[in-house]
Each structure stands twice: as C-alpha cells, then as structure tokens.
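BUG-334 | component: ligand-complex export | severity: low

The export step for adenosine-5'-diphosphate jobs runs without errors, but we want the raw record kept on the ticket for reference. Input record follows.
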Amino acid sequence: MTGGGLGEFELIRRYFARAGARPGAGSTILGIGDDAAVLRLPAGHDLVAAVDTIVAGRHFLRGSDPRSIGHRALAVNLSDLAAMGAIPAWATLALTLPAADPDWLEGFAAGFFDLAREHGVELVGGDTTAGPLAISVQILGAVPAGEGLRRSGARPGDLIAVTGTLGDAGAGLEVARSPQRAHDAHARALLRHYEFPAPRVAFGRAVRGIASAAMDVSDGLAGDLAKLAAASGVAAAVDVERLPLSAALRATASPDQALDQALGGGDDYELVLAVAPAAASRLAAAAAGTATPVTVIGEFLAGEGVRWTRGGRSYVPARGGFDHFAGASTQFTD
Ligand code: ADP
Ligand code: MG
C-alpha cells in the first residue's frame, strides 16, 4: 500500500510484528512472517473461532480515538469467546487503511496490544491493504473438549442473569456524538464504557459447567435475549425494573431513556446467562471469584418469545435488536 512513504512491510514490522503476549492457551509454532501461522492447541481441547469486522462510520464514529478503535476491534471478539467459556489464545488482524498515518497506527496498535496483553492473546498474522477504514479481527481460543457454553441450553425454570450494568455504552455513544457533554464525570464514565469495553473473559470461563446457556450482549438485551430464547426453544420473562443500571446512567438519563439504552443501546459486551436455580450458589461463587457483578432479571419458561413487564404491567421495548440489513437502522452513517 502507499501513503506517508511507509511501505506495507515496514508498517507490519513497526506496528504489528511485536513480541506479544504468550498465548493464554496453546502454543505458537510459527507466528507473523510466513505465509500462515502454525498453532497448537493444548491436548484435549476444542478450537473456538470467531471473527468480527468494524467499519468506520458504522461501528465507530469517524475521527474516533485510534486507541479506542484498536481496543474495540479486539474486545468485540474477546466478548464472543467469553460467551463460549473459551480461553483466548491467538488473533489475526485484517486492516484496511485509507493511508499509513503513523500517529493513527501508533494509537491503534497501543489500544489493541494493551488489551491483547491483558488477556494473553498473541497476534500471529493478518493482512494489510489500502481502502476505506475497516478492521477485521479473527480470534482463536481453546475450551476443554465438549465444555464450551452455547446459546441453546436454556431450560424452562432457569434463571436469567446478566453481568455488569446495561445501557452505559449506548449512552456513551450519545456522549461521543456530542462531545460538549464530556466535561461531566458521569458522561465521561459512560463514554469510557463505549470506547473501552471490558469483555467478561474470566467470568465466562468460570461459569462453564454452571450456566446452561450463555451469549454476549452486543446489540441490546431486547434483541439478544430473544435470540438466546429462540436458540434454546424456550420463552423468557423479564421485569425491566430489575435491569442493572449504573449510577452514571441513572444520573444522566430519565428512567425511560435509561431503560431504552439498557434494552436497545448495544455495545455493552456483557453476558446474559441461563442458570438452573440449583446452580445459583455456584453462580454467586463464580461472580465473587472473578469480581463480576451479576444480577438475576427474570426466568426462562416453556413457550417462545420474551415477555417484558414493568411494575407488573406488560412493557414493550422501544427498540428491538440491531440488524444491519433491517429497514429501521439505529446506527450512524456520518
Ligand atoms: P501474503 O502475501 O503471503 O499473504 P503478506 O505480505 O500479506 O503475506 O504478510 C506478510 C506477513 O505479515 C504474514 O505472516 C501476515 O500474516 C503478516 N501480516 C500482514 N498484515 C498484518 C497485520 N496487519 N497484522 C499482523 N500481521 C500481519
Ligand atoms: Mg496478505
């Protein structure tokens, strides 16, 4: 690629071919520099793979802090592995860049590698090409054979539990769009949730054998819980008064706006789980052991669909889940 006199080879060498973290699971036989990477899983493990693409103007605002873009490109994938109860090990990175801007690359790589180190993820390959800004990260991880969590295991009578708080990232995106709000401490906390989500990797791993189903909440609980219920062939019943909302969200939004962000905002990267009542004490121990707040918000029932209530009355979320190809887009195209 061209731009700034920095060639593709030099760009990869300078920003991405770093001695990275040792992988959290498995071993790297051959990393960056050959035609492909060669990787070895620990004995008795299944390979868990996921890929996510983020595109400028669609998944992040143009002009976003490159450190946040690098962090989020990896975080969205780590969240998928967390939902499977997998241990992340390796990533590959496909970068499409309008220009080889050293300041942008420096920030992007810092955001990516800070999070990679935290989770023991080694970057073992990728592709670099010129074009409109888009980033694809593929993540590879390991799970003891047959023990991966799935969306399909929820049973009638299971509790519905969620990690952390919901709606902060959606509200944080609103702050990113009107930066004059960012002098307020609550608004800054929300913005931070959007820019630097913390995927629940340790917790996902800790609830293997405890949760009967799991999924990450990336597109808003309303749509994502409906997907989990459908995959399991059960119904879900949730009292929205039980949704965990942060002090920052409650301080900056009306009760209705806060609920709308919690159910339809997206980008939270928390986990939603099904847990049999008999496993509730083990769930609490996993939460305490990984310092993860967990809230029970309802239960799964026989049937289909999600029944939302608010103070005993039926409640209809303002937005469903996000679908890139549905007519009513809630995403931005600035
Ligand atoms: P090929 O032409 O064989 O696909 P490339 O010249 O594209 O190889 O890449 C050379 C090496 O650099 C490969 O090992 C590839 O995986 C790695 N690589 C390319 N781009 C990136 C990137 N953005 N991040 C990490 N590794 C990269
Ligand atoms: Mg290539």
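Assignee comment: Attached the raw record above. The two ends are 26 Å apart (CA to CA).
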